[in-house]
Amino acid sequence: MSTPVSTEIHEAVASALKTLTARSAALTWEDLPEDIRIRAARVFCDDLAALVVAGAEPELAALREGLARVAGVAEASVLDGSRPAVKMDRYSAALANGSAADWAELDGGYRAVVCHAALYCIPALLAEGEARGSTLREMLLALVVGYETVARVAHAFSFPGLVLHPHGGLATVGAAAAVAKLRGSDAETAFKAITTAATLCLPGPFNHAVSGALIRNIWPGLCAQNGIRAVDWAPLGLTGSPWSLTEVFADIFGGETNPEALIEGLGTEWKIAGGYHKMHACCQYAHSTVEAVLTATHGRAIAASEVASVEVATHWKGRKLDRPQPGTSLAAKFSIQHIAVSTLLKGHAGASAFDRASLSDPEMVALRARVTISAYPQDLPWPNDRPALVRITLQNGEVLAGDCLSAPGGADQPFSDEAITGKILGNLSAWPAAEPRIAEILLLSPARLDAPWADTLTALTA
């Protein structure tokens, strides 16, 4: 067990969190730099589209069917691609949408620490914003606040190895911070909601992603629901304690604590600027492997029968993704062996590279067994801290090699506006009328920002 933290650390974290929530409560749209407003709109649209594209998954359809049987007042849309969307109570909608939001592995993330900050905010904001008639401007501001809060909490508590999965450990905090801002909560109420949310998190094992346990995909939905509840209960006195963050993340989970991370650079450094977008439908730790394979093949079609072996040398987080024969599509997205082989044979790591058929395909099964994983020759600093080197040896003795120090999509190698917009619209193919509305959001059209989110959603799904 970890040693309980000192009173001084408890108080330092509580004090820093109060400073953060005071700043967040006072923050206005006008306070945001223009590039952060643009970034918020882009992150919102990208994660929204990543949620919608997963709608046809049978497990999610079954989940929605079960929720519909017991759902309350119809106030928030379940965004599965249907037109018109089915509505449920906000808690059920947050659960359904949050469970879909990480399913395709196309949601963005935050590179500096293990944290998908937008994922932890957007499902709750979608449900709450529609139910209460919020404008898109209000929702984007709340997204920036929620993102800033949960990313800073992730910085404040670090964990050795990859044991606690952030989708369960952090998501309730992000949801509570975002919804508190959307409701206009004062600083004290927001502080109580966030500390309460810490006690409502889920101790999800990171290895559930690698093993393919699909409950991992549901954690953001449950946390979105719990985050809304934390904001509901804070004004009623149904709260945690001022020390709840450290009691949960340090005393119980054993995180190393850095209170200063909650306020360092506050107001000048925006965490949402440090996020990444994903074009490959798999764990970001393996994106450098995908890029290295694509570099090695250079567009050349390779048949499985031509390949003798595949060697992947990568960073320590990538080496955790060691699952030669994944049993579910989730496990495949967290398997270096599957990711490397599927990219090699299919020429991409899009959603179809991880479909059910690929799991049992005889050529894939045989070739995955011939993939070896080792350490990258050097430990490199950010932004090259997630590199991969791939050597593909063919049966005729030819060797194809590729190296990637940092996969595109992050702040160091951002995708073009056109690439991100193309991805968003591709994932929103179920909504044929979406393109002009998405363009308005990305361009921060005042009319679109000031319209209720419910009206924008109606236009998107027309």
UniProtKB/TrEMBL annotation:
InterPro entries (UniProt xref): MmgE/PrpD_sf, MmgE/PrpD_sf_1, MmgE/PrpD_sf_2, MmgE_PrpD, MmgE_PrpD_C, MmgE_PrpD_N
Every MmgE/PrpD C-terminal domain range: 280-433
MmgE/PrpD N-terminal domain: residues covered: 25-247
GO molecular function: lyase activity
Family designation: Belongs to the PrpD family.
UniProt-listed PANTHER family: 2-METHYLCITRATE DEHYDRATASE, 2-METHYLCITRATE DEHYDRATASE-RELATED
Name of the protein in its database record: MmgE/PrpD family protein
